Amino acid sequence: MTTTWNDNVPIYRQLRDRVVAMILDGALNEGDALPSVRQVAADFQINPLTVSKAYQELVDEHLVEKRRGLGMYVMEGTREALLKSERERFLREEWPAIYARLKRMGLDIDALIEAARKHERSGS
């Protein structure tokens, strides 16, 4: 498996963000086991300590739990907690710039809804 890493962000952080995205996208559900540290390290050709650091961040954030001898598992309530925090972060950090750009372009909510409907109909 080949992947492109962003040189401006530590790999462990990017790996942590990938797991979060998998949870939000439903690829990993509550109660599911995360791939083993050894497997992820081999798949991405990275140091197992890097994977462990990413997984430890997820544990520290109470998104996954360690089960002795079994591995790491997505905790109950994780997806809902992530959705809440990601929505808050989006509205705080990303939305102001998007809103300003929409305003500059003269786009209103009706135009956005119509564009979203066209996008959904096209199956993209």
Task: Please give a structural write-up.
This protein is mainly alpha-helical and 124 residues long. 62% of the residues lie in helices and 6% in strands. It is built from five helices and two strands; from the N terminus they run αααββαα. A two-stranded antiparallel sheet has the order 1-2. Helix 1 crosses helix 3 and helix 2 packs across helix 3 (48-60). The two termini are 26 Å apart. The model has no long low-confidence stretch (mean pLDDT 93).
Sheet with most strands: 2 strands, antiparallel
Mean pLDDT: 93
Count of helical segments? Answer: 5
What's the helical proportion of residues? Answer: 55-70%
Cα distance spanning the termini: 26 Å
Please give the order of strands in the largest beta sheet: 1-2
What is the rounded Rg? 18 Å
Instruction: Classify the beta-strand content into a percent band.
Output: 5-15%
Give the tally of β-strands.
Answer: 2
- What is the string of SSEs from the N terminus onward? HHHEEHH
Essential attributes:
single chain, 124 residues, mainly alpha, two-stranded antiparallel sheet, 62% helix, 6% strand
